[in-house]
């Protein structure tokens, strides 16, 4: 039976963190939280649950997540975001593979709750994530804010767990628009720093393509009004990202 460290990064997550921590208690032998000096009750809630609590200034999602993994006591790591939790089926799946961890890592599905609606389309589900792995065999990579965990040898030695990560993404439309503004700030700066260019036509074509993909090709219309709102705001986010990129480049 392996020992498992659950690792979370946080900033002002008092609304979500307790649900996340409670879902981990049956599977984690240690819970590590790396906080970016939250201004709310995040720290107090975490300490109440006896987690290993650390603080470090935020310098990027990828950097912070790799730093959090470095604090884990055990090499086998389960990574969650603060606004996520394990459902019962996934908890049982993790218990089973702790007794026979014979892969380098394990994928699992993520199901998102959007303003009270569980989203099954829009390209948001099953949203497969590699979140359980031997940390000696990989690292967080990607382009901020879109981080992803990559195993050094790729996916040839990975498994798949039944159950869902429950993702409580946005409680209101304002939450979604705030996140769009925040993420497009980070993404546009990363885009420019990588020396990429954004021709004018992408400002028009890419948002339209994004809406068509989410709402029609990915069957977002089956999620009703939530699917329409997600598709519309995703298209706006694409437009805003390229607008910010062009502003930075000019």
List the helices and strands and how they pair.
Elements: E1 5-10, H1 17-24, E2 30-35, H2 42-48, E3 52-55, H3 61-70, E4 76-79, E5 84-86, H4 88-98, E6 105-114, E7 117-119, E8 129-134, E9 138-143, E10 146-151, E11 158-170, H5 173-193, H6 201-217, H7 224-249
Parallel strand pairs: 1-2, 1-4, 2-3, 6-11
Antiparallel strand pairs: 4-8, 5-11, 6-7, 6-8, 9-10
Structure description:
The longest helix is centred in the C-terminal third of the chain and has 26 residues, at 224-249. Helix 5 (173-193) runs parallel beside helix 7 (224-249) and helix 6 runs antiparallel to helix 7. Strands 1, 2, 3, 4, 5, 6, 7, 8 and 11 form a 9-stranded mixed sheet that branches. The chain has a two-stranded antiparallel ribbon with strand order 9-10. Strand 9 (138-143) and strand 10 form a beta hairpin. It has 7 helices and 11 strands. The termini are far apart. The radius of gyration is 19 Å and the shape is globular. With 250 residues, it is an alpha/beta fold.
């Amino acid at each position: 039976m392996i020992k498992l460290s659950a690792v979370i990064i946080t900033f002002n997550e008092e609304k979500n963190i307790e649900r996340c921590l409670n879902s981990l208690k049956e599977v984690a032998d240690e819970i590590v939280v790396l906080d970016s000096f939250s201004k709310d009750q995040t720290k107090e809630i975490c300490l109440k649950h006896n987690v290993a609590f650390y603080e470090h200034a935020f310098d990027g999602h990828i950097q912070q997540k790799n730093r959090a993994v470095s604090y884990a006591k055990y090499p086998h790591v389960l990574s969650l975001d603060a606004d996520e939790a394990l459902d019962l089926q996934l908890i049982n799946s993790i218990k089973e593979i702790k007794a026979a961890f014979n892969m380098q890592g394990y994928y699992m599905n993520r199901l998102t709750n959007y303003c009270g609606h569980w989203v099954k389309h829009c390209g948001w589900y099953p949203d497969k994530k590699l979140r359980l792995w031997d940390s000696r065999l990989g690292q967080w990579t990607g382009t901020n804010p879109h981080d992803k965990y990559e195993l050094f040898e790729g996916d040839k030695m990975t498994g798949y767990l039944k159950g869902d990560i429950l993702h409580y993404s946005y409680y209101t439309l304002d939450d979604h628009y705030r996140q769009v503004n925040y993420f497009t700030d980070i993404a546009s700066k990363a885009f420019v720093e990588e020396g990429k260019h954004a021709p004018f036509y992408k400002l028009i074509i890419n948002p339209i393509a994004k809406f068509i993909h989410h709402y029609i090709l990915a069957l977002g219309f089956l999620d009703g009004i939530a699917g329409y709102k997600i598709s519309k705001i995703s298209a706006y986010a694409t437009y805003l990202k390229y607008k910010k990129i062009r502003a930075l480049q000019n």
